[in-house]
Structure formats: C-alpha cells, structure tokens
Design brief:
This protein is α/β, with parallel strands linked by helices and about 210 residues long. The protein folds into two domains: about 35 residues, no CATH class; about 180 residues, Beta-carbonic Anhydrase, Chain A (3-Layer(aba) Sandwich). It is globular, with a radius of gyration of 19 Å. The structure holds zinc ion. Zinc ion binds next to helix 6.
Length: about 210
Amino acid sequence: MSAFPDRLLAGYDRFMNGRYDEERERYRELAEKGQKPQTLVIACCDSRAAPETIFNSGPGELFVVRNVANLVPPYAPDGEFHSTSAALEFAVQSLRVRDIVVMGHGRCGGISAALDPNAEPLSPGDFIGRWMSLLTPVSSEIQQNTLLTPGERQTALERISIRNSIANLRTFPCVKILEDKGKLNLHGAWFDISTGELWVMNDATGDFSRPGR
Ligand SMILES: [Zn+2]
C-alpha cells in the first residue's frame, strides 16, 4: 500500500495547531447546532481558485460546489446522476442559502477545452467533452470569431459561461420561486488568478467590473 501523501499530513498538522486551534469553539458550535451557511458558491475544480481561500472564509460560512468550469446545467429531473443539481437543491431547499455566487476564473482549462477540444491540458475524454457541451452553441460561436485574439476569446467565454449558468439556475423551480419572492439573490464573479483581482457581474447589464469599495 502506498503511503498517504506527506504533504497533506504536514498541512493537517499545521491546520490542527493553527486554524483549528484558534477556531475550536466555532467548530464545536457548528458540530452541535449544524451548519447554516448563507452563501452557495459554484466554482471551478481548478486548484488555483478555491473559494474559501479567495473569500477568506471560516468554517460554516460557504457551501461550495466545485465542478469543471463552474457550470450549472439546466433543470433536468430525468433520473440521471446530477451532482451539481443535487448540491444546489440541498443548498436552496434545506439550507436556505440567501445568495448564490457563480465564480469563474482566468485561464480556466475547462473553458479552453470548450474553445479547442484538442487543446491541452484537458482532452474530451469520456466526460469532459460532454460536460463542456453545456456551453454550445455559444462556445462554437466565439471559437469562430476571428476578430478576437485567443486570449480575448478565452476571457469572453469564461464570462459568458457565468451568465449562462445564472440563466440555467433560474430554470430550477426552487431557485426561481425564491428569487421572485426576494429571498434568494444570484451573483456572478470572475477571479483573475494572475493578479488576484475579483470582478463582479452587474445583474442588470451582465457586465463585469471591479467592485467599488
Ligand atoms: Zn476552471
């Protein structure tokens, strides 16, 4: 049997002696009373775009769903395995989160794969190609736009896909009903891993800008 990765064990030791120690009470309270996060974040699996790190959040604050390219599929109760939809249902119906943030990021490998299915590092494989097809026909349209540079195409699709996911969120009856009642807010965000900048989506226009603070 191969050994459990040392790097993880060392990190766990630091966590127990640092953060867990500092937040012991909070963990104990959360264990007793259960979680009540106010925000659901739908983010990419990318190792550089962890929502808990970016938002500097503590235990119990964020309910996080991560998948390749932070996509939300449309509502489709068809008996298939829908991990993102199941997590969304749990967050909205049971945890009653008040905000849902779809957070994309720069240099997303999933988005690159949607623009060029043969590009490294992601190949269509058995699942990725089908998963990223959630973005067609938009991805093919952008792919064919020769006025844009490859970098511009990439950023454009990263942001358009966030708007696409937010539109798909509204196809879930539980989301639509609570949003219409003013009990649930949907947001888009895009994180630039190279500069650390966070851009947020304007609900009315769909444009992204740096939040004024
Ligand atoms: Zn990504």
